[in-house]
Amino acid sequence: MSRIYVASSWKNTAQPGLVEELRRRGHQVYDFQHPNGRDDENVWLSVSDRLGYGRALALDSLTPAEFRQMLTDSEAVARFNEHFAAMRDADTCVLLLPAGRSAHVEAGYMNGLGKRVFVMDCSWEATPELMYLMFDDYFHDFEELYQALKQPIPGVCRVCGCTQRNPCDHPEHGYCYWVEPSLCSHCAEKLGIKDDPATEHCINDESTAFKVRKEAGV
Question: Is the pLDDT reported for residue 111 higher than 90?
Fold first, then answer.
């Protein structure tokens, strides 16, 4: 199980299907189109409309001064903070192409944090990009991506997703420790406490990004 941030475009029609399939396979996925289960729209449409710049087509004719004002808007800042928290919480980024500037910034940021980044290209024609060599792999077949996501990530528990900075805790056994490079003690059969109600997995998981758990189908 991975915690995945899908970086893509609002115009990419493959994004909803990928999010659904990744969740069906047991991953926790942050969906920027439906963060924390709510329906959203492109934030710039509502911000531009509220500031009096108009919607949709008007976004193509904004001046730099107008856009600078939009960047400081409270709704834009709140949405940024929400997405930023999700990037920090995730252990994997899937850059779903075609995508624009924001998605590439997100993938680059997560790569810089040492997180796993896969490029999944749904384009009819590939656009060569030398800097994709920074990332872990490039795919054009979804099944290849799904198989790659099955590979455990050292330092991230493959069962609960805990890390050294975000461990599990139990009143009798204390904090978890590594029994394998990708399996913590509190999820291993050794202690038998994985499903113990007293076991708290990922105790520092305070972000709202992944609050809706797997049992809710999100």
Answer: yes
Whole-number Å distance between alpha carbons of 117 and 115: 6
What is the reported pTM? 0.77
User: How far apart, in whole angstroms, are the C-alpha atoms of residue 99 and residue 116?
Assistant: 18
**Is the pLDDT score of 147 beyond 90?**
yes
Amino acid identity of residue 155, one-letter, is G
Q: Over 70: is that where the pLDDT of 52 sits?
A: yes
List the one residue out of 109, 49, 111 whose CA is nearest residue 76. 49
Mean pLDDT of 188-211: 81
Question: How far, in Å, CA of 143 to CA of 198, rounded?
Answer: 37
48 Cβ contact list (under 8 Å, min separation 6): 54, 55, 58, 59, 62, 70
| Cα→Cα distances 75→22, 129, 159, 191, 195, Å | 29, 33, 35, 46, 39
Asked if residue 120 lies in contact with residue 12, where contact means CB atoms within 8 angstroms, the answer is no
What's the CA gap between 50 and 45, in Å, rounded? 9
